[in-house]
Amino acid sequence: MYTRLSENNIADSADNSCHYGYDRASVELGIVHFGPGAFHRAHQAVFTDDLLVNGSTEWGICEVSINSATVKDKLLPQDNLYTLAILDRIKSHRVIGAIKEILVAPEDPGLVIERLALPAIKAVTLTVTEKGYCLTPEGGLDFEQESIVHDLKNKDKPRSVIGFISAGLKARYNQGVAPFVVISCDNVSDNGKRLKRAVLDFTMADDPKFAQWLEKEVHFPCTMVDSITPATNESLCQSVEQYTGFKDNWPIQREAFSQWVIEDIPNATLPPWSSVGAIVTKDVSGYELTKLRVLNCLHSTLAFLGCFAGLITVEEAIKRAEIKEFLEKMLHDEIMPTLPKVEGLDKSAYAKKIIQRFENPAIRHLLAQIAWDSSQKIPYRIIAIISDNAVASKASPMLCLSLAAWMKFIVTKVSTGQKLVDPLEDKLVPIAQACDGSNTDVEHFISLEQVFPEQLKTNKQFIEDIKSAYRLFNQYQAQDLSTILTTMRSA
Ligand code: CS2
Question: Which residues, including other chains, have CB under 8 Å from residue 339's CB and lie 6 or more apart?
Fold first, then answer.
């Protein structure tokens, strides 16, 4: 019915309003990206596409999938093009042409290193989630991880992103080619610092002289990335077809808001993303912390409370007055006081805008999607705030309620035989199986050293607050969420 999205078909189309609008043949590779998931294609690839729309020709992207060939298999038949649907009060669609090539690392690791060694590659970006950095809970490289053990023995055939970045930089070092800048775009605080630590630890174990060069010459700016990007579903594919007239194997959807804050490091040359809206600033950590603690913390809380109440989407959950009021009070009492001063950022206006973004009626953002991988997310977005409050001798009963709702969520999933989508699944399942609805359930969860820091485990107030919140989730049913929220607030 619809023709396949492709360079020729879009060029021949009578309605060209979605066309990327530049000559793709003249675009050269300038960026390598690891992890071409939906968020990258909705965010960094779009900033880069804007550069190409403005006439640059040196910033084509070579995508590298670390494990699976799915992205390549879906996008190759359409010349690596895909549609970005911006779904908000105003809707728009555009085809993104920035991806020039997609490599699947296990198919040809040598080719990935070859690309990384190309002098034209000036930046390497990553969205591989924090587990891709292979770090221990203490923050150093985990030398016991299988892929790291493998990569230190097989440096020309790495499996991990850390092994690839090191091999690419080493090839440049050996050939006297200036290094690329390495830009983590994962949603964790101090992302650049964490990544640098992983790469440095790896190279120290490999070649200390090269490691010294790397430490001095290679820049790893921290970043903050933000745009709400629900996973692609069948209804998006259909609406994109109807709108553009093309069959697209993997369109991407996101809200209109998109923000990229990149640390300004002297001598680190970035592709000119600041000319298309990226903010380059010395104070990226302030933005990062504010985003994690406001947007992501509220998101996860919405997900846990909403899932308990049997709700499906963010919009449905934020429409419930008792949930919205709870979030607003939690923001005011427990989150805002922990936020740093950020020049040029009005925190109250920022928080207000985030609630409005959640109310966007044009996208169906599934609460379940946000609840995925929570063991990796809550340390940054919830527990770090509780820890800061604890240092200031302040309790965080509402944030504890959010954590208790996460525990309840895990126990419910496991007891009803549903699959957990979480990298700590093998630890969470036995914990949930040992739970019996009593106070000791909380203790089982808190023993997870990857999630809960030592100093909280011995904090009486924290334990008491989580236990009393957890009791409420066992005492009341899904339809009683408002009772839970009011009971806890009046306690
Ligand atoms: C969400 C984020 O899935 C989640 O955990 O909180 O992906 C959120 O949508 C993005 O960080 C927004 O920039």
Answer: 289, 290, 293, 294, 347
pLDDT in tens, 421-478: 999 999 999 999 999 999 999 999 999 999 999 999 999 999 999 999 999 999 999 9
Q: Which residue type is seen at 208?
A: P
- For ligand 1, whether the C-beta of 226 sits within 6 Å is yes
Burial, 66: exposed, middle or buried (Cβ in 10 Å; 0-12, 13-18, 19+)? buried
CA of 230 to the centre of ligand 1 (A): 9
pLDDT band at 126 (very low <50, low <70, confident <90, very high): very high
Protein residue whose Cα sits closest to atom 11 of ligand 1 = 226
DSSP E strands: which ranges in 66-173? 82-86, 92-96, 99-104, 123-126
Between strands 246-247 and 60-65, the pairing is: unpaired
Domains located in the chain, CATH noted: 3-282 (3.40.50.720), 285-489 (1.10.1040.10)
Query: What is the distance in A from the centroid of ligand 1 to the CA of 346?
Result: 21
Query: CA 357 to CA 315: how far, in whole Å?
Result: 9
Ligand 1, atom 1, lies closest to the CA of 370
Give CA–CA dist 193/218, Å, rounded.
Answer: 12
pTM greater than 0.85 (yes/no):
yes
Q: How far is CA 364 from CA 225, 307, 328, 348, 375, in A?
A: 21, 15, 22, 26, 23
First-to-last C-alpha distance (Å) of the chain: 61
Residue 13: what pLDDT?
Answer: 86
Q: Is the dihedral of CA 450, 455, 461, 464 positive or negative?
A: positive
Task: Classify residue 316 as exposed, middle or buried by CB count within 10 Å of its CB (0-12, 13-18, 19+).
Answer: middle
DSSP-based three-state secondary structure for 52: helix
Amino acid at 139: G
From the CA of 229, give the closest atom in ligand 1.
9
CA dist 397 and 490 (Å) reads: 11
Assess contact for 398 and 336: CB atoms under 8 A: no
Contact 5, 248 (CB under 8 A): yes
Cα–Cα dist 241/239, whole Å = 5
Q: Is 95 within 8 Å of 11 (Cβ atoms)?
A: no
Q: Which atom of ligand 1 is nearest to the CA of 299?
A: 6
Residue range 60-84: average pLDDT? Answer: 98
Determine which residue's CA is closest to atom 10 belonging to ligand 1: 228
